[in-house]
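Hey,
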Amino acid sequence: MKITLACAGGMSTGMLVKKMEEYANSQGIEADISACGLSELEERVIGSDIILLGPQVGYQLDDVKKEYPDIPVLVIEMMDYGMMNGEKVFKNAQEIITSN
């Protein structure tokens, strides 16, 4: 499972990636989770099962969906992002991936 998170610069999202990786590892789930700035998305998204957008770039949802019509795109809930709730964000992504 490959999950790509995109935000304004990729820095704060990097912390959330760590929390998501910790949860995936604790569940024995193999996952490739990475963060990048929205400007780097094109080169980083190859092979992704889902794109998660940080709340600060949520306004780009429609554009990202148009750019990558074959990949589900989801905006991370502001509360989950602020609390760095890696477990919930991972579970949300996993649910969407498995339902597609």
